[in-house]
Each structure stands twice: as structure tokens, then as C-alpha cells.
Amino acid sequence: MVERARAFRYGDHVDTDVLIPARYLTTDDPSVLAQHALEDLDPDFASVVRPGDVVFAGANFGCGSSREHAPIALAAAGVRAVVAASFARIFFRNSINTGLPVLVSPDAVAATDAGDAVEVDPARGTIVNHTKGSSFTAEPLPPAVVEIVAAGGLANWVAAQLEGVR
Question: What is the CATH number of the domain that holds 158?
Fold first, then answer.
């Protein structure tokens, strides 16, 4: 069963510099990155996000530099998934590689406000907004991508594949 979570809502063109500011790129420790996730956009985020919460955002989420630290910081902070109207290609790929589920659903984003009670099932691509009484289906991800995310990222998926051939 997928638990209800809170929605955090942001606008268009949220770049990787605000997802995890460059001054924290001296570490790749997920717990340290989590403490500074969204710090320059939403200073309270890291202290109020709970495991399972979902980030909703507008167009071009994750634009900017190609730092994999951004999806790692969000996931380590407890974010279950990111639902956006669209993603920057490099952030989308980095999210898959690090195991952070990303779903494209402009309609879900348009219908969701900060604090709404939501339920997101990344494997099925379903998004339910309990506050508004609405449900949405995200653009489907290819089965191989769903497998990679479910494994916790590309490195974990490859390790499992290699274990299977031993």
C-alpha cells in the first residue's frame, strides 16, 4: 500500500543550483546533502520534509548543471518522487541513475498545491490528490527504467544483473 504524503510545490525552471547549492558539492554523503536540499529556494524544506513526501514542480525541473547530487539530496531528504510538468533531460537521467522516481504529469502539477495530501505510486505511474479528490496518470516509463528505479538506481540494477550471471 502506498502511504499518503504531503506535496511540496514549486514553479518552473527549478535548477540544480537551488536543489543542492554548489557550496555543498564538496561531499557526496547523502545525509549531508539532504540537510541542504532546496536550501536557497525553500529554507525550511530539509527540516520539515518527511519520508515519503512528494515534490511537484512546473516545467524544466532540474535544469542547470549536470550534478547527480541533486536527485541524491532529494531522495536522502525523504522525497519519494518528483512529479513535474517536464524535466531537464540530465536531471531526469540522473534521477533514474540514482533511483529517484520522476513522473511527468502537467495536469497533476496544475491541480496540486503545497500541503495537499497526495499518494504517488511510481511503478504504476498513478498520482492521487486526496485533498482535491482527483487522480492522474503520469506518462509511462519504459519497463526497463521502472526496473532501474525499483532497484535503487543504475549501479544497483547492474550489480543485480551481474549477480544473476554468476
Answer: 3.20.19.10
